[in-house]
Amino acid sequence: MTPAIPRLLCPTCRQPLPDSQPVPDSAEDRTTCAACGATVPVRQGIPRFVASQHLESFGRQWNRYEVAHDDEDRATFVAKTGVPLEELAGLDVLDAGCGGGRYSKVAGEAGARVWGADHSHAVDKAARLCAHLPAVRFVQTDLKQLPFPEQSFDFIFSIGVMHHDVDTRAVFDAVARLVKPGGRYAVWLYRRNQGWQESLNDWLRRRTTRMPHDRLESWCRWGATLGGLPLVNKTLNKLVNFSAHPVYENRLCDTFDWYAPQYQHHHTVDELLGWYRDAGFVDLRVLPPEKTGRLYRWVYDRSLLIGSGVNVVGRRSPA
Ligand SMILES: C[S@@+](CC[C@H](N)C(=O)[O-])C[C@H]1O[C@@H](n2cnc3c(N)ncnc32)[C@H](O)[C@@H]1O
Ligand SMILES: [Zn+2]
């Protein structure tokens, strides 16, 4: 296997960890730190630094639905990172919050060496999706405690992730520290909508986040059906969020993705730009939405589009 650089660090003493060793009579391998003796379980070739917790709705979701579509995922990657695929070859890249791995796959196929990191067991799906890419590897970890040295990636992207933590900014800052001087950092977060939309959404999500996942999924099937109706999916979804993706399974996944997670914070562009500046990033670029069209843009500019984003890419000041 092509070695992925940078190497993983021990969670206890921060020394590099060796490759995993098989554990006799066990479905699990492990890697043991030579310096302090701490061990990290390795299941299905993936080091596990966390036990799953509040983000497990994502583990369910990404393992359950088939939502990767190569052409669409490449286009979305470029739109939401601002980085052309031709610039990725040979770079060390981190997909921060990789979910089912569709964008790790895009970066790996473009020739990058990729680590995909996610808190949930979505990494199992991501590893299956990228099984043909030896330079793409995955780790199950919290992004606030990434097991990598600071300043070790040429490019880090995070698409639709950090707002699902209890503290979005803490995740942004922790991940920012891993960007090399001169390296790039692209982040997409949910946009804050109009007050009345936020209140209605909070009211709904207070209920949906407590539902058992099977029951919530049945509700989301209604949303996915509505999202396929031409007029409805351009009007009613300004009131209540459901996906209008052309493929039913993506609509179901996106709708579940909206209503299941415990935390879902919404942010403004100015807030995100401020975080970049405070963390020492320059050449900041606010990326436009992927979709075009005059009506779309009008609604987007007024922050009326539920589920749309704030999206910035920046470069860490060279040392
Ligand atoms: C909406 S999904 C997006 C996945 C992927 N970026 C994509 O767009 O396909 C958000 C992912 O972020 C992960 N996540 C959220 N907060 C995290 C944290 N603090 N540490 C690690 N993963 C986190 C979740 O487990 C989930 O898989
Ligand atoms: Zn150690």
Kindly give the count of domains: 2
If strands are numbered along the chain, what order do they take across the biggest sheet?
A: 7-6-5-8-9-11-10
CATH class of the largest domain: Alpha Beta
As a percent range, the share of helical residues equals 25-40%
**Number of strand elements:** 11
Shape: globular
How many alpha or pi helices?
11
CATH superfamily of the largest domain: Vaccinia Virus protein VP39
Structural class: alpha/beta
Compressed to H and E, one letter per element, the order equals EEEEHHEHEHEEHEHHHHHEHE
What name does the CATH topology of the largest domain carry?
Rossmann fold
- Measured on Cα atoms, how large is the radius of gyration? 19 Å
Can you put this structure into words, describing what you see?
This protein has 319 residues and is of the alpha/beta class. It has 2 domains: 56-192 and 263-290 and 305-316, Vaccinia Virus protein VP39 (Rossmann fold, 3-Layer(aba) Sandwich), CATH 3.40.50.150; 210-259, no CATH class. The chain contains 11 helices and 11 strands. The chain has helices at residues 56-64, 70-81, 102-109, 122-129, 168-176, 195-208, 213-226, 232-235, 248-259, 269-278, 294-301, and strands spanning 21-22, 29-32, 39-43, 46-47, 92-96, 113-118, 136-140, 153-159, 179-190, 281-286, 309-316. Strand 1 and strand 2 (29-32) form a beta hairpin. The mean pLDDT is 93. The structure holds S-adenosylmethionine and zinc ion. S-adenosylmethionine is lined by residues 55, 58, 97-100, 102-103, 118-120, 122, 142-144, 159-161, 164-165, 171, 257.
